[in-house]
Design goal:
- The protein is of the alpha+beta class.
- The protein has helices at residues 2-24, 109-112, and strands spanning 40-47, 55-61, 64-71, 76-82, 90-97, 100-108, 124-129, 134-136, 145-146.
- Strands 4-1-7-8-9 form a 5-stranded mixed sheet, with no helix packed on it. A 4-stranded antiparallel sheet has the order 3-2-5-6.
- Strand 5 (90-97) and strand 6 (100-108) form a beta hairpin.
- It is elongated and about 70 Å long.
- Mean pLDDT is 83; it is low at 15-33.
């Protein structure tokens, strides 16, 4: 009897994992993204200023200052990190180009690592920086999601 119970348990566990993986794969994230703490993230920032100006980027969070980076048009800057246990990880970047300064939370766990959120989960968060707004590109080639500057 115990052997039959163990076999049923294993079968149900495998079935659950297969169904869960299949149902999650239809979204913009894998089955484990956004559910577990310490999720690995890769942020990519691309200078797409229409004026072709150089973009000065300075990103940081509470414990990590990534320094000041100068990006020519279409150049990119990237960094990797893990979301903290409480899922409160935030990276804020300041952006400067001739005549303008703006800031934006380039990664916020509540927005970018929330499987139930409006914008889904990104493990590779690709941001195109335009004068009017920063836009998170979609991996499926769909319409990017643009957000207002914080300042």
């Amino acid at each position: 009897m115990a052997s039959s119970t163990n076999q049923n348990f294993i079968f149900m566990l495998i079935l659950f994992l297969v169904v869960h993986k299949a149902s999650s794969s239809f979204g913009n994230y894998s089955s484990t993204e956004g559910f577990f703490p310490f999720a690995s993230k890769h942020v990519i920032i691309i200078n797409k200023l229409v004026t072709l100006a150089t973009l000065i980027v300075h990103c940081r969070n509470k414990g990590d200052d990534l320094g000041v980076i100068s990006l020519q048009h279409l150049a990119r800057f990237d960094f990797r990190f893990r979301v903290n246990l409480r899922k409160t990880t935030t990276y804020t970047c300041s952006f400067e180009w001739p005549g303008n300064t703006a800031t934006f939370d380039i990664f916020r766990a509540d927005r970018d690592d929330n499987p139930r959120g409006k914008y889904g989960v990104c493990s590779e968060c690709i941001w195109s920086i335009y004068e009017p707004a920063p836009c998170r590109d979609r991996r499926d080639g769909g319409q990017p999601q643009c957000f207002p500057w914080a300042s």
